[in-house]
Amino acid sequence: MIEPTLILQLPHPQLPPSTGVFLIATVIKMIVIFTIYMVGVAYSTFAERRVSAWIQDRHGPNRVGPQGILQVAADGIKNIMKEETYPSYVSKALFVLAPGIAFVPAMMTWAVIPFGAPLPTLWGRIDLVVADLPVGFLFTLAISSLGVYGIVLAGWASNNKYALLGGLRSSAQMVSYEIAMGMSTVCVLLLAGNVSLNEVVQQQAQMGWNAFLLSVAAFIFLIAAFAETNRVPFDLPEAESELIAGYHTEYSAMKFSMFPISEYANMITASAMMATLFFGGWDIPFTKWDNTGDATVLKALLTFGAFATKVILFVLFYIWIRWTLPRFRYDQLMSLGWKVLLPMALVYVIVIAATVLALDMAGIARGPMFGAILFALNAVLMGGILFVLDKGRLISPAYSRLDRSRVERLRAMATGRSHLAGRGTGA
Amino acid sequence: MTIKVKVLERPVGEVSYLRATVKGLALTFKHLVDPHKVTVQYPEERWDISPRWRGTHRMLTTEDGKAKCVACGLCPTVCPANCIKLVPGEDEDGNRYPLVFEIDEFRCIFCGYCQEVCPEEAIHVGRHYENAEYSRDRFVYDLERLTSQSHAVCEMWDPADPKGE
Fold first, then answer.
1. B15: alpha, beta or left, given left = phi > 0 and alpha = psi -120 to 50?
2. What would the pLDDT profile of B63-120 be if each residue is shown by its tens digit?
3. Which of A8, A27, A116, A351 would be A304's cystine partner, CB 3.0–4.6 Å?
4. Of the candidates A394, A352, A349, the residue with the CA atom closest to the CA atom of residue A373
5. Alpha carbon separation from A142 to A109, A145, A267 (Å, rounded)
6. Domain limits, chain B
7. CB < 8 Å from B in window 71-100 of A
8. Does the beta-carbon distance from B19 to A422 stay under 8 Å?
9. Cα(A108)–Cα(A96) distance, rounded to whole angstroms?
10. Cβ–Cβ < 8 Å for B8, A387
């Protein structure tokens, strides 16, 4: 519905810019986001090393520059200068391509993530998102599934059994958790009624964060995000105890370095998705002024700060988890994905869909009241889920409690012959 | 015959993954915010080494800058690693002095017997541990090097004060 006068209109800070300005602004946004993102990736590797050191009562890298902040530059230079090895029998084209493929999807997701309130400029209002796709949400789902290709191709092209096993594990893991992840995000769409991420953020500003309205979905998404990014406790593709280094066993120098870089890139992207979908995106909590009224520069900066803070907190959470939990066993991983998370997500979608439908039919407007009812429902559900998971069945094959009758039977069998006497005869 | 498996029925509190996770996160967080670091930031910070530390040797000198050594030959005799090379000399007044006094620090086992046996308190093992060199032959310390070194010397074990207090 563009009126002819709009085209001839003079630029105004509160109105969308003209096409030329839009293109230039998009290019600038791309460059800015890419730069911030790459610096963020570099510094999350540094944060990982420092935080892990603190958790283990060490110092961590603190020599290059004040408190070691130039360590990332030293690492980068080292990795570029190192010799690149090409094992014989690798499929060379794919071997070279795989690190890039692993990295690019993580970065592409950022195109649709809104990172701040619109910025007014002399040439028109600039949305702080590289591409405000109407289907932004579906785009992220599609792209995040592509991330596995890099790892699988690396594993396959290496022509190495460990690398191949790592790649296979990664693909199985991604497929398993992708479903639960997708299902958990369906609930977000049910609430927002839209697949544009900006709309999702606005909805959360109106009704309260989805982390409270859809806690179970947030919980599932969080776990699935860990699995999707191959982070501990789901880092089976590179389980060094059984697979040397997994899919990047044969890689060296910068090509090897691309895999950790893409892991951290994925981590930041997953953190940003988590923040956007469940923690209000760039919404500043407990305030309304940032979502309403005219766009101002201050608003844009503060909301960007809020978004960055949320993302950084999630990255730190990732790191914290990594240095706390041990790796799952492969069957535990699969059973958690298929037997716990997937059914949970499916049932939850139905429950939320029914609740939203019922509330809409009861004529309750989408607002604080709507949010409060959903929050109460989620509190109950979350309590129930945590109670069930607490019963030692979360990673069931590792340890499932035997029911009393089986214990009795086994005890009766064991008392027949003592443990030591049975050992000598053998089976 | 079936394989017998010892079945333990533990209380939920001990086997719950959730509770263990929360407990673990609390523990790591405690260390994160309050790390009790034990690492010594080496070039800037150093350990106080024991007064009885036995490191590379040092030859003490008299006021006129000559080595106290009288080339009695006790230290090469007592040395279990056979790392001291001593060629005695004698001046016009009949004072003995070492013509050659070399210690091969690679052979040395830092037992400190040379210091204990020395009647003139000339040769000492030092309280010193930064001995890196660029070539192996630099590890044979000659008399000049031994006398020019200035690091603290070892205080040998004193039976009256067995704990070194």
1. alpha
2. 888 888 888 889 899 999 999 999 988 888 888 888 899 999 899 998 888 888 988 8
3. A116
4. A352
5. 9, 6, 17
6. 57-148
7. none
8. no
9. 20
10. no
Give the distance from residue B48's alpha carbon to the nearest chain A alpha carbon, in angstroms.
20
Distances (CA, A) of A325 to A233, A362, A367, B24: 6, 45, 39, 7
Q: What is the pLDDT of residue A398?
A: 45
Identify any residues that bridge with B97 across adjacent strands, giving them in sequence order.
B89
Residue of B nearest to A407 (CA): B7
Task: Indicate the length of chain B as a whole number.
Answer: 165
| From A51, A325, A407, residue closest to B7, measured CB to CB | A407
Contact B4 A414 (CB under 8 A): yes
User: pLDDT band for position A13 (50/70/90)?
Assistant: low
| Cβ–Cβ below 8 Å for A324 and B28 | yes
Chain A residues touching residue B38 (CB < 8 angstroms): 57
Question: What's the token pair of residue A376?
Answer: 């109460």
Mean pLDDT of chain A: 81
A402/B32 Cβ within 8 A: no
Residues of chain B with a CB closer than 8 angstroms to some CB in chain A = 1-7, 9, 12, 15-19, 21, 24-25, 27-29, 31-32, 35-39, 41
Cα A113 from Cα B116, distance rounded (Å) = 76
- Tokens 């017998």: give the residue: B4
Note the CATH number of domain B57-148. Answer: 3.30.70.3270
Nearest to B103 by CA among B142, B77, B132: B142
Q: Which residues contact A325 (CB under 8 A, 6 or more apart)?
A: A232, A233, B21, B24
DSSP for A188-217, written as a single string: HHHHHSS--HHHHHHHHHHH--HHHHTHHH
- Tell me the C-alpha distance between A153 and A159, whole Å: 10
pLDDT tens-digit series, residues A193-242: 777 888 788 888 777 788 888 888 888 999 888 888 888 788 887 777 78
Taking CA atoms, what residue in A is nearest to B36? A57
Q: What is the mean pLDDT of chain B?
A: 84
Q: And the tokens for B101?
A: 């006094």
Distance CA A16, CA A6 (A): 10
- Paired with B153 in beta bridges are B126
pLDDT value of position A91: 82
Name the residue in chain A with its Cα closest to that of B44: A63
Per-domain boundaries in chain A: 11-399
- Residues from chain B that touch A402, judged by Cβ atoms under 8 A, are 7, 9
Please answer yes or no on whether B31 and A419 come within 8 Å at the CB atom: no
Local structure of B8: helix, strand or coil? coil
Distance from CA of A339 to the nearest CA of B (A): 16
